[in-house]
Amino acid sequence: MTKILTVVVTRDQMAKLPTEVFEHELPILQLLHGGENKVKVVDSQTWAGDELDARTELERLRNKYDKRNLQVVDRVYPRGVADLKAAGLKVRDGEAVKPSQTLIRRHKPEQRVSGSAGIEQSSAPGADKVGEIEALAKGTIPEITAALPSLSNEQLDELEVHEGAKDSPRAGLMKAIEAERDSRN
């Protein structure tokens, strides 16, 4: 039976990001973010949706995690579909099905973690500015870089996710976001 885990990814003392992933995604997150100390499981539920197809799931994982050519999925599952089958996923006969866009719901940017126990709602200033982040992301690197100091940690995360989701993320912008994070520590 496939499980959905609610995990908290700790980037630094201020940035603790809750999200939900399938159980077989946990080792990928741990590799990306630095192990068990940075990725904590806070809840677990049984997946009530359709049975996952290993071939389709492998494609979804690569699309989700390997956008920056890190090949993290292949490092965790070097045998691909065979490794996902060993993790409990099935291979359907015939053509692979398209992955559902609603497999995992993602927490809203305004949610924050309270301690390590659970998720607390926050109406932090800027939490409702996702549209502004998307608009900012359309600017030039110098324009965006000039605005970085005025963004909250959550907004920096949103900007990084938005930029990283592009086919060709701008390396200069990604470095500027990282530099801004480093300057806050």
At a glance:
With 185 residues, the chain is of the alpha+beta class. The protein has 8 helices and 5 strands; from the N terminus they run E-E-H-E-H-H-H-E-E-H-H-H-H.
In words, what does this structure look like?
The strands form two sheets. The protein has a three-stranded antiparallel beta sheet. Strands 4-5 form a two-stranded antiparallel sheet. It has two domains: 1-122, no CATH class; 124-184, no CATH class. The chain contains eight helices and five strands; from the N terminus they run E-E-H-E-H-H-H-E-E-H-H-H-H. The termini are far apart. The radius of gyration is 18 Å and the shape is elongated. The chain is α+β, with helices and mostly antiparallel strands and 185 residues long. The relative contact order is 0.14.
